[in-house]
Amino acid sequence: MAPQRSGEVQLVTSENAESFFSNTDKPLKAILFTKKTETPNLWLRVAEAQKERCIFGEIRDGETSLMGQFGMTEDVLPKVVAVRSSTIPGQVERIVYDGPNDLERICEFLHDAIEGGPLVVELRREVQDLNRELRGLRAEAQAQADAVEAARAETARAKLGQVGQVDAVRKRLEGELAEVQARESSLTQRLASLEEEHAAAVAGLTEERDSMVREVAAIKEVHERAVVEICAGNYPSFQRSTVRPLKALLVTTKPDVPLLWQQLAEAQTLTTSFGIVRHTDAELLALLGTPVETLPRILLYANGEENPIVYSGIVTFEAISSYLEESVSGGEVCMDLRNRLDQAIMAEEAARDECAKVLKAAEASAEERDRTHGEEVRGLRDVIESLKKQLKDACAGAGEELRGVRMDTERRFAEAAAINEGLKQQLLAERAATRQAVQEAVIRLEADHRLERSEWEEALQGAEEVESQITALTGAVRATEKAVVRAASAVHVTLVRSARENERMRSSLSEFISDVAPAQIEPSLAYDPAAAQRMAG
């Protein structure tokens, strides 16, 4: 659902909040939290003045979910909040405006939020607080000066004849006036130094912003294609890039981008930056420590890491995609375990191939034995047939000789049958032993594979627990920093109030002394030397 518009201001609700905050046409989003049912004229004027640089929105108090997300309650409305992209990818900065409802002040706040973010806004706020404090001190100094002048005139009128007392009071008041003027000069110098620091901070932030803009332009130039041609010139920018959590580099001897690498770049474009290095770039190959003889090679870089991890797994689309996804979620531990798993799978496949070769050789040997045994049986049968034929051709009357020949033939036939049965049993036993060995090898490989996978899952779970603990510690550190900042602010406010209270007490004491001094001086003028001498005697 598109946001409802009132001129240049969009009415943000729970239904259109996602589309509003995902809009990146302008660098800043300015949001007004209000109780009113219509857009205030002041906010419309601000939107008209800053429409070229800001996206303006309005959230009313009926949107409880959005109010809760920004920590807003009904008693603090109206409130203006600026939302801008943070220097950390994927995060935003929220800056709350605490000034008066003035067009120029709000426009100045939005300009500072765009140019420098929370730091410039906070510096501007401190300078304004110091200016207000300085104006208050100047007003107090002026009031004290007026009081001194009034006291001086009153003293001159009331005690015109008491020249000594008037001179003393005048000197005291002049001393206090000089002290106030010295304090004013010190505060003026402090204000000037703070303004110089503010200007230096703004200049530094501007320079940092320009540098970041140039770096972003270089990164966009590197990542505008799915697979980037990497050379010695753009390799540092590719390595420092943090647009995606992982970078994959293919070092190859092929002149074109391989189809598999192009498909991987299109499938993993949200999590991985893909690059390709040609074998002709000798300088970059030396920098990567990759000789031409070892190509092709796949190198993986995590953000902030200079030393790559060499991929040594199965070179298929599914295997490399799974490896990249698990590397993003599990980090270096997961990448190491994945390498070990791929090596185990490759070893298992090699063992299976070896077992298949052994089984095939055993079957060929068994077939050869069967063929040899068949030839022997056929030879024996031929001998038997030959003997039978000779027997038929022999003399019919030689019965004893015939019986002897028959018995010898039957004996040879029985021996041949026994030899045949023995060869069959031996062949079956060897075949069963070979199959049993193959099955045991497969079972051992599967057990090793399950053990490797369980170790990998335990390590991945440990990595997730460590990551959650790090996230919790980071939140605690940020909360502690915020508490320290609030405590420092409270201490600063307390010191300022204490200083002002001391000034007021000093002023009251000065007025009291001015009133009491004449009553103490008059008895001294009525001093009787004779009476004092009698008392001393």
TrEMBL record:
Residues 120-197 form a coiled coil. The keyword Coiled coil applies. The keyword Coiled coil applies. Keywords: Coiled coil. This is Thioredoxin domain-containing protein. It comes from Hemiselmis andersenii.
